[in-house]
Amino acid sequence: MPDAGLRYLSNVMKRLARVVSFAATALIVVAGVPARASISLLLEQPYGGLGMFNPTGHAAVYLDHVCAASPLELRPCRAGELGVVISRYDGISGYDWIAIPLLPYLYAVESTADIPDAVNHEQVSLLRDLYRRHELESVAPDLPDGSKPGGNWYELVGSAYDRAIYGFSLATTPEQDAAIIARFNDRPNVERYNGAFRNCADFARTTINFLYPHAIRRNFIADFGLTTPKSVARALSHYASKHPETEFRVFKIPQVPGALPRSRGVQGVTESLLKRYGVPLVVLSPIATGIVFVAYMGHGRFDMPRQAPLLDLNPPVPVVEEAGTVVASDYALPLSNVTLRSPSGVDVRSPLPSSLTTDDGGPPALDTPLVAPAERFPAELFAPPSTE
Question: Could you tell me the residue ranges of all domains in the chain?
């Protein structure tokens, strides 16, 4: 009898184990969360007039399993969400960092169906201001007359209209994602920007080092102790080459075609000196130029991954292929059905703000229509000018 009881208990435990296993599998499928999470350095090329004098570009941090509860608070991602970009700019309501969902950060729209094939200045300005009015009033409020404010808030939305972006990615664990959420949510978000020692690249360096200690250090030889976006990418690549467990990957986000000027290549400090002032430096001081050249070749040279694959904006959806097995599907979630929500959880849908209409009440005509305009953007807003 005791043996029969033990056999009965054993069978019960096996059945319970199978039930628990099936329940866990079903939970993963319902959640729709890919197995691999990551933290990425976004190295953004310089553009415009400032890019001519400061060719170091911009650095931001992209987390694909962490999302924005608001521009000032992080949370774990839900199914179908693409993650958040966190970056440091000066002059944004006294905050040190702002969190923006990936698609708005890149294109100022809420789904891939709304990304324009090409853009002009007026269209980009309008898309940015629409998103600001819906999602960023807390950090970039309207002026008293209802117009858009000044400052660097526009750098937080539609970045891919201005420049090409390279990504350098390391894998993260759920524990690391939870730690990074706690780190940002628990610390005071007060502006600390300093162009020399607390710039955007320093922000990326300290954030990544929080998860991977000592992965990125200041380059005192090639960049004279300054942290530049390119030096962060170089250090991260070297670190990953010695730590294959980080599952290092690279990707590229191309600049959207259109009337906006093309962005320029990213440079470090000594690289910029040599490429811009090499001949005058040789004339003035051949020895100093030689020292700068050796510093660059030995500690600053880094080639961008020009053949890097493009970032996939359609995450795979896990499905059950057979009982107890979860695999990634060959098709992507239709992001046109994914809606950005306000911090309160309400869908944001509103007509064109009155300050953006013309005197006769109609929207300004733009040269380039959107691809499959969503209901948030009235179709007539992006209609080409009439030739009649």
Answer: 36-266+304-382, 269-302
Per residue in 317-332, pLDDT tens? 554 444 444 444 333 3
SS3 269: helix
CB 58 within 8 A of CB 162: no
Please report the sign of the dihedral spanned by the C-alpha atoms of residue 223, residue 228, residue 234, residue 238. Answer: positive
Closest CA to 231 of 241, 246, 221: 221
More confident residue, 146 or 194: 146
Residue spans of beta strands (DSSP E) within the chain: 37-44, 58-63, 66-70, 73-76, 84-87, 98-101, 165-172, 249-253, 316-322, 325-332
Encoding tokens for residue 6? 């033990």
> Token match 């009235």: residue?
378
Give the count of beta carbons closer than 10 Å to the beta carbon of residue 161: 25
Q: Please give the Cα distance from 342 to 83 (Å, whole number).
A: 15
pLDDT in tens, 336-352: 333 433 333 434 333 43
CB contact at 8 A, 269 and 201: no
What single-letter DSSP state applies at residue 47? Answer: -
In tens, the pLDDT along 154-207 reads 889 999 999 999 999 999 999 999 999 999 999 988 887 776 667 888 899 999
**What is the chain's alpha carbon radius of gyration, rounded to the nearest angstrom?**
24
Helices vs. strands in the chain: H and E counts, helices first: 10, 10
Question: What DSSP state is assigned to residue 214?
Answer: T
What's the pTM value of the predicted model, to 2 decimals? 0.69
Sequence letter at residue 236 = L
